[in-house]
Amino acid sequence: MAGPQPQALPSPSYTATIRHLRAFLSVAKHRSFTRAATELHLSQPSLTMTIQQLEDIVGGTLFDRTTRNVILTQEGTDLFPVAERVVDDFDLAIRNIRLTASSRNSCIRVGVVSSIATKIMPRILEGFLASRPGLRVQLREGNSNDVRRLVRRNEVDIGFASMDGPDAELVFKPLFRDQLGLFLRHTHPLHAAAKDGVLRWADLANHNFVGLTLDTATGPILSQMEHLPESIRVPKYEVSTYPTLWALIENGLGITTAPALAAEFLPDNRIAFLGLTDPVAWRSVYIVSRLGRAFPPMVTALVKTVEAELAAISNGHSRITTSGIPVSEEW
């Protein structure tokens, strides 16, 4: 017959804090409650109560107190290296986090779609940084899906991109919207066929078309439009970034549609922009942030500078506006 089983020890209550361990280490180092209280900026009664709480937690006496000295008990000796390692690891983690936070406060990380990267950022960054010495800006360019992913993963502080339906992790604040238009070389036959700088979507039939993939802002807009010519619905070329798009257009491989902001300050005078109607299609761009994230003042200042620049560009513009944008959530 089996003998009596050993009684299980009660589960320990792990409520010790860094404050408890730091107090314990200070008393052990100084071998004095008075000197430890001075180092920790505590009253001696408060320090004594903290040590008593820790002794209650570990279930044993940590110090033997005499009239002239304070020495570690066996339990205190066993606890000392563990407490020292935990406090050192905690302090190191805090220092590293502070260094990272300091680095982030001196560097704004921004995810941007190509039109913002090439048409807005070059116009504002020099002035923005002139009054903020030491501040750096890191631009991560991509299509809208890339930007949303960067924001979602906390790889950038803020993003400027289109919205692809509700997202539980992201917040979208309306920034601006612009019409889709046609980009082509001046020598293309459609350029001469335009009336007052405008064509109908139907006029694009049977011309080589360079399309954008569905993970961009433009691709989903075209996919939802009805009665587009076959040459647009099934383009001869399909790309995912604007640099590739412009390279194909500049070399005369076809025509394409892109938002009106991309037409501002075109560097290549061989490329023309025409309006498209029947129907008129709009792209909406948002300030994309991670839900619940607070921004450093410099990020907020950059957003306001971008908003001001777009307000200036859209003033009196027929194809770029900062109003009438579908709202997802308040930012």
From TrEMBL:
This is LysR family transcriptional regulator. Residues 17-73 form the HTH lysR-type domain. Pfam families: HTH_1 (PF00126), LysR_substrate (PF03466). Gene3D superfamilies: 3.40.190.290, Winged helix-like DNA-binding domain superfamily/Winged helix DNA-binding domain. Keywords: DNA-binding, Transcription, Transcription regulation. Belongs to the LysR transcriptional regulatory family. It comes from the Bacteria.
